[in-house]
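The freezer alarm interrupted the setup, so I double-checked each line after restarting. Inputs confirmed:
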Amino acid sequence: MGISTLDRSKEKLVVVGGGMAGGRVVEEIVARENSRFDVTIIGAEPYTVYNRILLSDVLAGSKSPEGVFLYSTEWFQSRAVRLITGVKVESIHRDRKVVRLAGGEERPYDKLIIATGSLPLVPEIENVNTPGVFVFRTIEDCQLISSYARRCKRAAVIGGGLLGLEAARGLVNHGLEVTVVEVMPYPMAQQLDAESGAMLARKMEALGLRFQFEKASQRVLGTSAVRGLAFKDGTELDTDMVVISCGIRPNVRLAVDAGLRVERGIVCDDRMVTSDPDIFAVGECVEHRGRIYGLVAPLYEQARVLAEHITGVQSPAFYQGSKISTRLKVMGVDLVSIGDGRALDPAKASITKYVEPSRGVYKKLVVREGKLEGAILLGEIDSATLLIAAYEAGTPMPERHADLLFGRAAGDPRVMLEAMPGESRICACHQVSKESLVELLSKGCSLDDLAAKTKAGTGCGGCRPQLEMLSAIYGDADRNPATTRYAKSIPLSKPELMAEIRRLGLKSVSAVMRTLGGGDDPGVKPALASLLRMVWREEYDDERDARFINDRVHANIQNDGTFSVVPRIFGGVTSPAELRRIADVAEKYQARMVKLTGGQRIDLLGIKKRDLPAAWHDLGMPSGHAYTKAFRTCKTCVGTDFCRYGVGDSTALGIAIEKRFQGIEAPHKLKLAASGCSRNCAEATVKDIGAVAVDGGWQVYVGGAAGSRVRAGDLLATVATNEEVLRIIGRFIQYYRMNARYMERSPAFVERIGIERLRSILVDDSEGQAESLDRQIEDEIASYRDPWLEGKSPIEPSQFADELAIATERS
Amino acid sequence: MPNSCASSTVETKAAAVGRSRVALCSLDSLPKGQGRCFAVGRLKVAVFRERDGSVAALDGLCPHLGGPLADGLIGAGVVVCPLHAYRFRLSDGTGVDNGFRAGRYPVVIEDGRVFVQLPPTE
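Predicted 3D structure, all chains:
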């Protein structure tokens, strides 16, 4: 890798271990001192350094392995660090100051850093080597588990701790029936008390997990493959595979063999030096003041201290041990554990508790001598950042502890974030303060830049919503060229790219890529297709290979390769005849699920690609576009026809909106709603565009969302008639199509442009664009054609084929 | 989850017992810049025709979670799985920055017809 000859003038620094600790310590060292050391990092795994915390996301399928790499091989090369992967270090010879690699090669060192991490703790279980038993520690483990899981129906996870629960949830995503086996009577016994543990178990059960508590595993059943687990109490559990996730033990073999002082871990002082002054250690293999850490924040603190001492740059800090907080990052379950919140005896500590079983909320503070000793937040974690800050800084607690349990729950998180003092930590993993982030944001940095410069958000990822919020408050994205670029491989903003496309008459994606660059990158094609479609409308040369599969077959691909079919139901108003046809189609084409959607429609899931044209024909209804970046639906309440409170006819308006704008393509999806009075039953204020009836007309809101982030829409205009509502919506949609970045949803767009500016352009016509916007959207509406008509006359051969038959000859 | 076909072992097996050549389709029937899936016995084979004219064949099912590779966007010598956007090189089936590998089958074009070299049916 890179440099192969040793520079004799430099001290040789060898890092054993290519995990997060090894990578981090190298980063911290080369950031301070890049000339004194000749650095080599040796990892046993065949990859560059990756983020082990995110492996549960890899197992769950929500992240790719490359998505968790922390440093590329080029990163090491450009810093003249020699990266050796896939090679184990076999021994350390302190007498000669060399390490011996597998295969016999020796590498000399002047300074050595041991970052060998930890190994999975495997309890004594008979037949634990039976095929189908796995540990969960590496990318390779993930791959082995994923591929074995494909032939299984049931899985057991031994260990109900943080990692065990995350592994279990990952296996549920693979479609398995998963049972978590735990010795204690409730999960996460390291962090939770019995009451919160039981609540967590109920939440996880609602996600599809099963539990067997107070079960000690004795024996794996099955000979050629796992078929069950036998417990010490004589009971058994049928299962097709077993994943062991019972914790970690420091990987200390090299240190023991080399004669270093080792207790449970490699014993280090406050400078991270072992019993040999030329050998340091960092990470999960370390024992410091009797403690071993298995989380990322302490490891990063250790790496920083070690780097300061080994380089002598900056006045070195001393490692004092770490204060621990944990976040369970499993979909749908919010849990934060700070310090030790398990104390139960009110005689020894002041315990403040709030429990709301119906919502699954449990909050508990343990305060001793006026300071926070620990906290458990389950189901509602909005005060976590404040509590973690108070815990780490050891600040005195206010007299009313309840203020810290509910301080932020009532308030707008944005307001709280603005009010937070500058030195507050936003990213706990990488210790990044609010003020340092705000400074970078005000210089025009994007979120990606923040991640590159400060690493904020790249550890557990729990602070990402706050980073996005900070960026929305303090950011200035327009000044950053990389963020204004429309397609990442073409150095032009959206208006520039549109101008070039028009000037050069480029009418297909392949023509744009040939002429303006882009390297045929498949990741960029759909974005270009969206833009060209808008610029050229009917003149667009529609190369189908530039479309994502959903837009080739006009249905939404599901995790098993089948598709979901959502016919349009205008305004959510259907008829018995339509419902009968939908039911017939669901039966005839064996829909695996029939589901009412949030947009007041009916979703037929699990339809085979080859059946799509016939299903559409039998439905006799147009496409609902529930698969593409376009106008989706307009949700309505019943309005004046039936509702005794109705002020405006929201149903009629909703149907008119949907008939007019159905299928209009946009940079991202558009979900709309119309409510007949201010009670707002159709939730119009959290839609991309919403209309709410008021006395004498309608209010039109834009930029609302109730997704991963909840945002109330901004009032764009109040108008008198349905025609005016349709006109102002059309203007907004066209302006959004012309000016939003690809995949930029309306809330981000409205915040970026500003509601006052939008109002002045779209309502007051301050820039004289209104007429042209009205005309363009009118043309777009006129050129609309139901894509499901392609079912009758496919555009290209085998467009809707699942798989093709072959000629029978074999030669 | 669809069943996986024996992806990574296919090429070695074929080398050991002698390959079998299968005619898939006419070249014209493959749309430019797209893939199509063919069923050969229990095996699913994804065949891709790049815009530059080259044709390649990989396992039909993504080695990650069995996604239909033939439905993926292609370009710049890779296919992007439609389920989780893992990328695989059409030249040899190796993952781009991921540790997975899709089995790859040699392709021959003769007289406008597309053939792949496969192991004999089981």
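Quick read of the result. Residues 1-18 of chain B have pLDDT under 50 and may be disordered.
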